[in-house]
Specification:
Elements lengths: L1 E4 L5 H13 L3 E6 L4 E6 L7 H5 L4 E5 L19 E2 L6 E2 L5 E5 L6 H13 L4 E3 L17 H14 L2 E5 L3 H10 L2 E4 L7 H8 L5 E4 L6 H13 L5 E5 L17 H8 L4 E3 L1 H5 L2 H14 L3 E5 L17 H17 L10
Parallel strand pairs: 7-8, 7-14, 8-9, 9-10, 10-11, 11-12, 12-13
Antiparallel strand pairs: 1-3, 1-4, 2-3, 5-6
Helix pairs in contact: 3-4, 6-7, 10-11
Phosphoenolpyruvate binds next to loops.
C-alpha cells in the first residue's frame, strides 16, 4: 500500500500519517520527492485498513501496489535515488557516474596504497578492496579482516577516496559498517535474507551485487529486504551471471540496466571485472556499461596483477585504468553525463 500525500502537505501531516501506520503495527517509509511525498507501508500481518488512511489530513490518495517489490519501485518514488557522501562531491545515481576501483583483496599495506595512489590519480572517487573474501576454496586467501579495514581507513585519510568493502556475514557487517563508507553484499549472499535485513538496519549505503543466477525480480526483492528495514540507500550492481558460455567467467547482462531503470528508482552500476573474468574484456565492457546508461562502474585494479592473491586474471593494470577512465568519460558526454575527475 502506498499513501500519496498532497503536493502541499506539511512535514507534520506526513509525520501524522507515519505515526498512524506505526500504531496499526505496520512500518511507514516516507519517500520525499520534488513533486510529492509518498509513504510506503510494509508489514507481514495482512492488509492495513485503507479507509482510515484516506481520511487523514494531507493525504491525496491511497494506492495498492500490486508488484511484489514496493519500496524499490518507481511507483513509490518517481525520481531517481541519488546517494550522497557528506563532505565530498561524490554521488551515486545522479548525472555524475560513480567509479569504484581498487584491488580484489587488500593483501598488504604497500599493495593497497600502490593501487589507491594510482586509482586516485586517474580520477576515481571510491576505493574498493576486500577484507573478507568469499573464496571458492577454503584454502585460498580469505582476506586480512579488520587489519584490511584499518588500511582502507588510512587510504581514505590520505586520498579522500570513499571506501567500499564486502561484509560476508553479520559479524563482518558490524566492522564494515564501523570502518567503511559503503557496505558491499556479494553475489553469493544476494539471497542471504538475514544478512540483507541486518544491512537494512545500518545507515550506510549498501552495494548489492546480483546473485550468480538471480532473475531481475529476485534481484529487486533482495533490495526490498534491505529497504524494508529502513535503509533506503541501496546501489544495485550487475556483475555477470552463470551461463553456458565458456569464453568468459560470467555473462555480463547489460540489458538488466535499462530494465532496472524502468522499474526502480535505485542506482545501478556494473562490474566488468567479475562480469568477464578476463583482463582484456574489462575495458570494452566498461565502455558498453557506460553506453547502456549505468550509473557507475566497479573495477578491479592491481599494480602487479600476476602476483595478486585473488582475481589477478581479471585485474587491470593502473595504465589500463587511466585508459578506461578516459574512454568512459568520452562516452558519458554523449549521454550528457559526466565522470568527475577526483574527489573534492
Ligand atoms: C568482489 O567484488 O571481489 C566479489 C567477490 O564480487 P562478487 O560477489 O560479485 O563475486
Ligand atoms: Mn574479486
Amino acid at each position: 500500500m502506498l499513501v500519496v500525500m498532497k503536493a502541499q502537505a506539511t512535514p507534520e501531516e506526513v509525520q501524522a500519517v507515519c505515526d498512524h501506520i506505526t500504531q496499526l503495527g505496520f512500518r511507514a517509509h516516507p519517500m520525499p520527492g520534488a513533486q510529492r511525498t509518498a509513504v510506503g507501508i510494509t508489514g507481514n500481518q495482512g492488509q492495513i485498513d485503507q479507509g482510515n488512511l484516506e481520511e487523514l489530513s494531507g493525504v491525496a490518495e491511497v494506492i495498492a501496489v500490486s508488484k511484489p517489490y514496493k519500496l524499490v519501485s518507481r511507483d513509490l518514488k518517481e525520481e531517481d535515488t541519488v546517494i550522497t557522501f557528506p563532505g565530498t562531491n561524490a554521488t551515486i545515481g545522479g548525472r555524475d557516474l560513480a567509479v569504484i576501483a581498487g584491488p580484489c583483496s587488500i593483501e598488504t599495506r604497500e599493495q593497497a596504497f600502490a593501487a589507491a595512489e594510482q586509482v586516485a590519480a586517474a580520477g576515481a572517487q571510491f576505493f574498493r578492496g576486500g577484507a573478507y573474501k568469499p573464496r571458492t576454496s577454503p584454502y585460498a586467501f580469505q582476506g586480512l579482516g579488520e587489519e584490511a579495514l584499518k588500511i582502507m581507513v588510512e587510504i581514505r585519510e590520505r586520498y579522500g577516496l570513499r571506501i567500499v568493502t564486502e561484509a560476508i556475514d553479520t559479524e563482518a557487517l558490524e566492522l564494515v559498517d564501523h570502518y567503511a563508507d559503503v557496505i558491499q553484499i556479494g553475489a553469493r549472499n544476494m539471497q542471504n535474507y538475514s544478512l540483507l535485513k541486518a544491512a537494512g538496519r545500518k545507515r550506510k549505503p549498501v552495494l548489492l551485487k546480483r546473485g550468480l543466477a538471480a532473475t531481475l525480480e529476485e534481484f529487486l526483492m533482495a533490495a526490498e529486504y534491505v529497504m524494508s528495514e529502513g535503509n533506503y540507500q541501496v546501489i544495485l550492481c550487475e556483475r555477470g551471471i552463470r551461463t553456458f558460455a565458456d569464453h568468459t567467467r560470467n555473462t555480463l547482462d547489460l540489458s538488466i540496466v535499462p530494465a532496472v531503470q524502468r522499474l526502480s528508482h535505485l542506482p545501478i552500476i556494473v562490474d566488468p571485472s567479475h562480469g568477464t573474468g578476463k583482463r582484456n574484456k574489462v575495458i570494452p565492457l566498461a565502455r558498453a556499461a557506460v553506453a547502456v546508461g549505468a550509473d557507475g562502474l566497479i573495477v578491479e585494479v592491481h599494480h602487479a596483477p600476476d602476483k595478486a592473491l585473488s582475481d589477478g586474471a581479471q585485474s587491470i593494470y593502473p595504465e589500463q585504468f587511466v585508459q578506461l577512465m578516459d574512454e568512459c568519460s568520452q562516452i558519458a558526454t554523449v549521454l550528457r553525463r559526466n565522470i568527475p575527475h577526483g574527489i573534492e
